[in-house]
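Q: Here's a chain of 439 amino acids. Please give me its 3D structure as tokens.
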Amino acid sequence: MPDRPGSQASPNVHVVSHIPLGRIFTVANIDMEQEMSRPYVYASRYTKTADYGFDIISVKDPAKAHVIYQWRIQDAELHQGTGCLSGKYFKVGGRYYYAQGCQFGQSGPDADLGAVILDVTGLPDTSTVKEVGRIRVPETPNGFHETFTYKHSDGRALFIGTSSGRYASVYDMGRFLAGGRGPGTEFRIPIPESQAMRGYHDMYLGYDPSTHQDKFYGAGSGGYYIYDITNLDQPKLIASLTGIAGMSSGHTFTPSPDGKFAVVESEYQYAPLRMFDLRPALDGSVKTLSRPIGAWTPRWSGLPHNHEVRWPYVFVSSNEDGFHVFNWMDPTNPYTVGYYDTYDGPNQRGKNYLTPDPEAAWNDPKFPGSVTNGVFGIDVRNADGLIVVSDRATGFWAFKVDGFDGWNGHQWGMPNVSSAQDWDNGPEGAPKPQKAALR
């Protein structure tokens, strides 16, 4: 149903810019560079063969955001499958790169393609954008579903992808760009054997200054898992969140900056985001957590999706319900503080993955659809608080929220830890790596 007059947004959320990006169900995840001097946003494109790839959007003037570059896979019409769902940028040796994750079917070319790596240092001169490598994963056909990039405390720039394998694949991008392959360049973070029916869906990596550990937070088969990956050659399982009522698998797993609490998602309609207190598992009181301490959803019949944590706020892509922000300073009682509905179409008309035609439900109201429509990806720029989202139906949006003009964890009595990476200096509080360890 359409929104009531005046109900499309809360008064504290303001549209900065909006760009339609083309056909419905072609816009996937989104990633934004964090430096103000590099005002670039990367929007992954998927589902439709002509759109497999990504767009680069300039937000130099956020009120006049515009597409400056498009990359598409060669012979797009021959490729099959999901396509380019998720990509992340990173920095190595003073140069900037973008890694576009790919997920192509075995009935077409590039079924073993995990990611395409492009040098984007020369932006805004788009003629300098150059492909510099491809990650191939023949042992796990259909490529990478989700991706993440992380500056390890030892100085390495890491790229992580999830696939059909029962592990997350990790790459030392300094070594990879120098031609390295195999041991020393490629690593694996396993799903615990007791849960290894499938692999990971999504992940987050962050440094814990209180324990001096690099930690991997993986969502996948059976639930959610925390590993110590300070030594990438020997990942150590720290804690598990399994046996959770209403959850047979995990989708997204994001901790608070201090690693004591977490927001988790399981991908099905009616499932709220759940809050967990991780402390009993981290201090060894219990081996496994199974009971959340709080939950949040914008609508009981909806599906809150990807999210970014900037304590005490969680910025959420909520599919048909649009962009939302909630406060979880008290994880047992999270509450909504702002929203904007970017999707003005009917409910239950999202992609139906059981048919060869993903637009069947949209074109035929009698055909059963899903709630996977509307906002897909979300990112936050810490320097000024700019928020960007990607909507499957309506394209790119940029927002500002009253009172949120940037984020630094210390302003909230927290470590300055989020998905945003300090590519030059590494994690705050981490010991400075020895020169020989730098890649």
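Q: Can you summarize the key feature?
A: The chain has a mean pLDDT of 92.
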